[in-house]
Amino acid sequence: MIRIVHLDAAVFRALADGDLATANRLAPVPASEWLAGPECRDVWRMRLGQALDDPGSEAWTTGIVWDPVREKAVGRAGFHGPPDADGMVEIGYAIDPAFRRQGCARAALEALLARARQEPAVNRVRASIRPDNVASSNLALPYGFVPVGEQWDDEDGLEIVYELAVAA
Fold this sequence. Notes:
Elements: E1 3-5, H1 9-16, H2 20-26, H3 38-53, E2 63-67, E3 72-79, E4 88-95, H4 104-118, E5 124-129, H5 134-140, E6 146-153, E7 157-165
Parallel strand pairs: 4-5
Antiparallel strand pairs: 1-2, 2-3, 3-4, 5-7, 6-7
């Protein structure tokens, strides 16, 4: 079963720097070249900033999607941060291209939703998806996510905001 392995500031820094050797020395599980590559570095920089500002956020933010059967990192996933004052968390995930279309994204989403449902401070999960990202929409919508609005993301452009009510 896929699990999300959370990281600390030192691992975020190593991955943000593209330093796979240091990340693998410090992380609880081995990272991959893709995780230390250019596609992921901006996320690690953002999570490093969060971890430095609020070390408690490390347990909520992006971690390694670990496949214990393959004993490989297959992607990254987590929440954008701890629950806000209204009990909302936003999910984010990306799967290494070498492992896409193999159920890893679904397993990561299910792990995130299970965590959200277990946390008393969480009552709502948000997912922001570009309108042209059909794969992510097709993944999230069957779980009951409903559109609640739109937003502009400087990195991704227009996104549809979906939410799902969860109960602890």
